[in-house]
Write a structure and sequence with these properties.
Oligomer: single chain
Number of strands: 9
Shape: globular
Strand order of the largest sheet: 1-5-6-4-3-2
Distance between the termini: 35 Å
Helix content: 40-55%
Radius of gyration: 19 Å
Number of domains: 2
Largest sheet: 6 strands, mixed
Number of helices: 10
Structural class: alpha+beta
C-alpha cells in the first residue's frame, strides 16, 4: 500500500523548489518511510479537502504496477505546517493550519527538457518524442485520465529515460471536474503538433501497444489501491463507494482494446 505517514516522518527541511511551481508550498525535505529509512523528497501540501495528495498517490501506485519510470519512493504525509513555516514563507491561506495532507516523492536526478532558449527546447523535445518512454507515458495518461501532462512536467535522467513527475490531475472526471476546470494538455496533442503524419501515426501505434500492459498492471495494483483508498476515508461507507468508482473506472479503461478504440487506431 502507498504509505500514509505521520507528521514525525517529516525530518528536515532541505530547501525550496527551483524553479518554484504553481504550488508555492513545494519544498525538499528528508522524509522517513515506514521502515525508518530517510528519503530526500519533494513535498507539496494541499489545502483541506483538496484531492491532490490522493490523486498523486494513486497515479504513483498505478505507475509502479506498470513499471513506468517514476520516483523510487512516494507517500502521503501529514505535513507539520508550523514547522515548515519556520523555514519558508507561506501565504496567508496557511495561517490557520497546524497540519495538512501533502504528497511527497523522492527526488529524481534529471533535467527539464524546456529551456529559456527556444532552440534548445525544440531540439530536446524532438529528441524526447523519438524515445519509447513518451508513448508509454501518453498511454498511461490517457488510461488514468490525466488532464495536465506536458513536456514541462517530466524529467530526462542522465541515462536518457523520461520520468513523469506530476500526476495531480488524474481521474479528472471523478475527482476534479465538479470543482475545477483544467485546460486539457497531453503528450499526444504535443506529438500531433510536433511530428509529421507518419511519425504521429507511429506515436499513436506505440501508445496502443503500450496499453496492452494496462490490464495486467491494473490487476497488480488494484488490491493496494483499494486498501489505500479505504485508509484515506474515515467513513467506511464512503471509502467503499470511492474505491468502487475508481477501480471500476480504471478497470474499464485498462481493457486491451480500450485505447485503440478511443484513438481509432489499429497498430
Amino acid at each position: 500500500m502507498i504509505p500514509i505517514l505521520p507528521a514525525s516522518a517529516w525530518r528536515e527541511f532541505r530547501g525550496t523548489a527551483s524553479p518554484p511551481g504553481q504550488n508555492l508550498t513545494t519544498h525538499q525535505a528528508l522524509i522517513a518511510g515506514p521502515d525508518g529509512r530517510e528519503h530526500k523528497c519533494f513535498v507539496k501540501a494541499a489545502p483541506h479537502g483538496n484531492a491532490m495528495p490522493f490523486t498523486e498517490a494513486i497515479g504513483w501506485g498505478v505507475a509502479e504496477a506498470l513499471d513506468l519510470p517514476r520516483p523510487g519512493f512516494a507517500a502521503v504525509l501529514v505535513l507539520p505546517v508550523q514547522k515548515l513555516r519556520q523555514h519558508m514563507k507561506l501565504d496567508q491561506h496557511w495561517l490557520g493550519y497546524t497540519h495538512t495532507l501533502a504528497f511527497c516523492a523522492s527526488t529524481v536526478t534529471g533535467r527539464h527538457i524546456q529551456s529559456r532558449w527556444q532552440w534548445v527546447s525544440r531540439v530536446r523535445k524532438a529528441k524526447a518524442f523519438k524515445h519509447p518512454d513518451l508513448p508509454r507515458i501518453a498511454a498511461f495518461d490517457t488510461w488514468v485520465e490525466n488532464q495536465d501532462r506536458h513536456t514541462g512536467n517530466f524529467l530526462q535522467t542522465k541515462d536518457g529515460d523520461y520520468v513523469p513527475i506530476d500526476n495531480e490531475f488524474i481521474l479528472y472526471t471523478l475527482m476534479w471536474a465538479a470543482n475545477i476546470t483544467v485546460g486539457h494538455q497531453s503528450l499526444r496533442n504535443e506529438a500531433h503538433a510536433l511530428l509529421k503524419v507518419t511519425g504521429y501515426k507511429r506515436f499513436e501505434g506505440s501508445m496502443v501497444l503500450a496499453s496492452k500492459l494496462h490490464e495486467a498492471a491494473f490487476q497488480k495494483a488494484a488490491p493496494a489501491l483499494q486498501q489505500f483508498i479505504h485508509a484515506m476515508h474515515s467513513d467506511p461507507a464512503q471509502g467503499i463507494a470511492v474505491a468502487t468508482a475508481i477501480l471500476h473506472f480504471l478497470e474499464q479503461r485498462a481493457h486491451p482494446d480500450w485505447l485503440a478504440n478511443e484513438l481509432g487506431c489499429i497498430p
